Amino acid sequence: MTRSFFFIWRTLLYPTYLHLLCSIVALLCCVPILFPYLCPANTEKLVIRYAGISLSCATIISALFMIFSMIVHMLRLSNTRAFSQLFKWAGIWSSAGLIFILTAIAADLPPPTTSDDKRPIQASDTLYPARDILNGPASLVIPIEPEKEDSDIVALTPNLSELEAQHSDILKLYLDNSPRWTGQNDDDTFYTKPGHLVMVPPVSGGTPALIHVCFRTLVEGDTLPQGYAVVTPGSRFPEPASDNAQIPDIALDLGKSHFLLLAWRGSTHRETAFRAINAAITATDDRMQPLLESPTRETVRRMLNGRESYPGTTPEFRLSEPLAQDGAYQAEIYANTGEQGTILVYVKDLENNQTLRLLNCPARFSNNPDELFRHDIPGSMPHWIRSSTQDDISNIFPHNTPLFAIKLGPQRQFFGVAFEIWFQPADIKKQRYMLLRRCYKVQAYDPPSSEIAH
């Protein structure tokens, strides 16, 4: 009996282990609150309710024991022990708070709704197609001008050919790290994998045309994809099998281990196709000129970062859905917040104002009001804090791929969404505010079965 009483009395005076136990209980109670999709659907609200009650009880019990021990020690004139208990309690719960913050960042939950969030979506919103032209170095859609090109021989590649001959290692360094070219994983199926450009010629009528472009590095023993016709710069184009046959896919041999693969999808008209292919070759070669002029790692870094700021005063949002990658999107925000903080991108369903996706990235800023900074979405986001939703779409694309999906579901069922761009200042005393809002017609991403299995 005496031992039990002594143990209880010591626990009341020195409740350090009790604080640890309460903080662990509180953190465990945060799991269903931060990750509600882990709970069974039919009991989700009940589990979260009891988790909240348990969390509050653990916090209150720990605080009461700390206050009691402090009072007793101070009545016994042991002020040092009293404040020691206070500091231990504060240290334990500060550590628990830090763990909670890191877990909340990983969970990436949207903040509580405000009165503005509850306003109904207006039916008069203009829905834009996701065909904006992006400026960043990770943009997967590039317009070309075929009318300036010849259609008899394959276009020359002065920049690529010289890089391949003299600086093949630098060329490989750029290709291995550029989101435009990485992500193939030796898979040349253009329609299911990111990691290649889609070059789009202007359309005067009829079916839109496009050219898929990617690099392929061959080592000893590798073979080119089946069906590709190998050509060299300045050689003649291969002839189609018949007048109405699809233009052959082309593998442009750059002289060593690199090939530029080009696949035309559009009209079977020979001259139209070959002009467009040459325009794609020229556009790709032109983008390598800075690397040839200064073949260094610093140039590679600058090319991977691209131009970061542009003149302007009005924030802007651009969204692009690369053709033949239905439901996969990339975006750019042009803004200058003037202070440190985080840019938040809410993707909301126009029918019910539900947040389908929450993306975020650190804000670039300066004191110049006439300068706008480019923010790549999701390229500027650290991959470990990329958002998830109630459907697990956070890991569809590799983290070095400049694409994001909105939600899983059947393709070609378009619906309206609003992209709300908010800024949260680093100063916690300041309120977040909306930079701009733009609405688009989008579709869900429906990955191939091989990706779902993976």
Number of distinct helices: 10
Mean pLDDT equals: 81
What portion of residues is helical? 25-40%
**Proportion of residues in extended strands:** 15-25%
H/E element sequence: HHHHEEHHEEEEEHHHEEEEEEEEEH
Shape: elongated
What is the number of E strands?
Answer: 16
Low-confidence segments, ≥5 residues, pLDDT <50?
112-122, 383-392, 450-454
Largest sheet: 6 strands, mixed
Query: From the helix content, strand content and strand pairing, which structural class follows?
Result: alpha+beta
Strand order of the largest sheet: 2-3-4-7-6-5
Provide the number of structural domains.
3
Task: Please compute the radius of gyration using only Cα atoms.
Answer: 29 Å
Terminal-residue CA separation: 61 Å
Can you tell me about this structure?
The strands form 3 sheets. Strands 2-3-4-7-6-5 form a 6-stranded mixed sheet, covered by helices on one side. A 5-stranded mixed sheet has the order 1-16-15-11-12, with no helix packed on it. The termini are far apart. 32% of the residues lie in helices and 21% in strands. It is of the alpha+beta class and 454 residues long. The longest helix has 32 residues, at 44-75. It folds into 3 domains: 2-107; 141-304, no CATH class; 309-453, Sandwich (Immunoglobulin-like), CATH 2.60.40. It is built from 10 helices and 16 strands.
Provide a brief overview of the structure.
By secondary structure, the chain is an alpha+beta fold. The protein is 32% helix and 21% strand.
Blueprint of the fold:
Elements lengths: L1 H12 L2 H19 L9 H32 L3 H29 L20 E2 L11 E3 L14 H9 L1 H10 L19 E4 L9 E8 L10 E4 L17 E5 L4 E8 L4 H17 L2 H5 L3 H9 L3 E3 L4 E5 L7 E8 L5 E9 L5 E8 L8 E7 L26 E2 L9 E11 L7 E10 L6 H5 L1
